[in-house]
Design a protein that fits this description.
By secondary structure, the chain is an alpha/beta fold. About 40% of the residues lie in helices and about 15% in strands. The structure holds pyridoxal-5'-phosphate (PLP).
């Protein structure tokens, strides 16, 4: 076991973001300086950039098993999700499309969008419950569908507890009732197959920075025949579905990163799995009171998450950071938020306990030594925090 006394630097927050792969940076560089034309301009510099964007679109389409014309480039996961939800609901006219079904454990990109649309656009929504392991039961979808349901949106895998959802079963239920299905696959990309035909989804959201691509660029798969009302108004870029000059270096980087993730899929996911299992085993064995959250098997290969009853996740993260371990509690977007994890609450964890969430996520360059160091630091700090807690009682 590695000693926790010598301070090392270990990053186990790959679900928050990943570094950009140097091969991706290399692919992007010419598009900042040499091939800088606006991909929407008719001249030669513009056409060179356009070619790069269309090549990127083809690469993404090949991996998702769809047509290039079905890929819309965006500024990231949040925008893709917004475009899917707002785009469908606002373009489906009248009272026949006023209802959306989603789940209680979606990312805030989905939940806040639904909340805002309910208060400003008269949209209603139903959130499906989850099991104690954070699984949405497809059987709960049927009674939740209404004659005016326009869309079902359920994430492919959860960002806080890593549980993988039965997307193809949910999509089949939605399709049988003529309702469109969107999945937020931001966490799944690079860790699960993303074949949109096999999944049976009509829309799928991606974000490049979760799979070793650049930040601020994403994609939305939109099945042929679905017309989205653009979330932002302006030019007629991206076939009129997303206004704004396309980020050429960004989409080149997204496509390169996605291609590398799927070219190296077997070795990367085997590596994630083996370190994740080592991490889970050692944490459960050596860290006092630690409990695994999420599904024990149906979870992302690189994702481990725990509950430390009676501890405050944010305090824990701070102490771990002082020992050089970058981890997270609840989701990255909620750091500093004094509310407990809404995902854990939806899974039936009591309010007081839901503050003690810890997420450790593995990357392609994580080593066994990193895991050993992290477990040793974690065990030491958790013991210390429990001791302090007792002294204050
Ligand atoms: C499940 C999920 N959806 C959406 C997002 C938002 O993606 P982005 O950071 O690209 O806006 C995230 C980011 O953490 C996420 O985990």
């Amino acid at each position: 076991m590695a000693s926790a006394n010598a301070t090392q630097s270990v990053y186990l927050d790959y679900a928050a973001t990943t570094p950009t792969d140097p091969r991706v940076v290399e692919a992007m560089l010419p598009y900042f300086t040499e091939i800088y034309g606006n991909a929407h301009s008719g001249h030669r510099p513009g056409r060179r950039a356009e070619q790069a964007v269309e090549d990127a679109r083809e690469t993404v389409a090949r991996i998702l098993n769809c047509k290039p014309s079905e890929i819309v480039f965006t500024s990231g996961g949040t925008e893709s999700v917004n475009l899917a939800i707002r785009g469908v609901t606002l373009s489906e006219k009248g009272d026949s499309a006023k209802h959306i079904v989603s789940s209680a454990i979606e990312h805030s990109a989905v939940l806040k969008t639904l909340e805002q649309m309910a208060s400003t656009n008269g949209i209603e929504y139903t959130l499906l419950p989850v099991s104690q392991e954070a699984v949405v039961d497809p059987e709960t979808l049927i009674p939740a569908l209404q004659p005016n349901t326009a869309l079902v949106s359920v994430m492919a895998a959860n960002n806080e507890v890593g549980t993988i959802q039965p997307i193809s079963a949910l999509a089949a239920q939605a399709k049988a009732r003529g309702v469109l299905m969107h999945t937020d696959a931001v966490q799944a990309a690079g860790q699960l197959p993303l074949d949109v035909q096999a999944l049976g989804v009509d829309m799928l959201s991606l974000s490049a920075h979760k799979f070793y691509g650049p930040k601020g660029v994403g994609a939305l798969y939109v099945r042929d025949g679905i017309r989205l009302t653009p979330s932002q108004t302006g030019g007629s870029h991206e076939e009129g579905q997303r206004a704004g000059t396309v980020n050429t270096p960004g989409v080149v980087g997204l496509a390169k990163a996605l291609q590398l993730a799927y070219d190296e899929f077997d070795e990367r996911t085997a590596h994630y799995r083996s370190l994740r299992d080592q991490l889970i085993d050692e944490v459960l064995r050596l860290v006092p009171n630690a409990r695994l959250t999420g599904h024990s098997e149906q979870r992302l290969p690189g994702h481990a998450s725990f509950l430390l009853d009676g501890l405050d996740g944010n305090t824990l993260i701070m102490h771990l950071d002082m020992k050089g371990l970058a981890a997270s509690s609840a989701s990255a977007c909620k750091t500093g938020n004094p509310e407990p994890s809404s995902v854990l609450l939806a899974m039936g964890v009591p309010y007081e306990t839901a503050f003690g969430s810890l997420r450790l996520t593995i990357g392609k360059d994580t080593t066994e030594t990193d895991i050993e160091y992290s477990v040793s630091v974690l065990a030491q700090i958790v013991e210390k925090l429990y001791r302090l807690r007792q002294n204050y009682r």
